[in-house]
Amino acid sequence: MGGLQVSVPVSVPALFLVGVVAGGVATRAMDVVMARLDEGETPPQVASGVLTDTDPDHAPERPAAAVHYVAGVLTGPLFVWLYLAAAVAVGGGAPAVAVATAVCYPLMVGFFAVVVLPRSRGLARQRLSKIRRAWGVEAAAYLAVLAPLVGVAAAVL
């Protein structure tokens, strides 16, 4: 009995590798935006606080940075997968990049706003909308860098 054999062009795994690298580049770009926003550096502290059961204002910085970069790097391949799925539906190129972006943005913002932020403890209620807004801007900046990098790589590979 023969096993299932799947053949994919080399460009697909290469595109996932590009996604990892592009995710890292986009995360570095996000850092620039985070530093300029009121509450901009709070989302990684919130994630660290949730993981360590600590108030975000006192959450350890090393886990915050680690979570931030791991999530950023791994969102790159997620975006590639969304791009490839969109390419099946709408064809490749700019339309697939636009669809992947339109799907990835609410996933990023929603996951943080609905899953991570409500599990945080010790944040004043007045800060929550500023933190959500900052994350929304940061996610947009991340995708503004990631989407074109993946789109160009997909066109070249």
Short structural summary:
With 157 residues, the chain is mainly alpha-helical.
Description:
- By secondary structure, this protein is mainly α.
- It has one domain.
- 78% of the residues lie in helices and 0% in strands.
- The chain has helices spanning 11-36, 42-52, 61-90, 94-116, 125-156.
- The longest helix is centred in the last third of the chain and has 32 residues, at 125-156.
- The chain is elongated and about 55 Å long.
- The mean pLDDT is 94.
Pick out its properties:
0% strand; mainly alpha; 157 residues; 5 helices
SSE topology:
Elements: H1 11-36, H2 42-52, H3 61-90, H4 94-116, H5 125-156
Helix pairs in contact: 1-3, 1-5, 2-3, 3-4, 3-5, 4-5
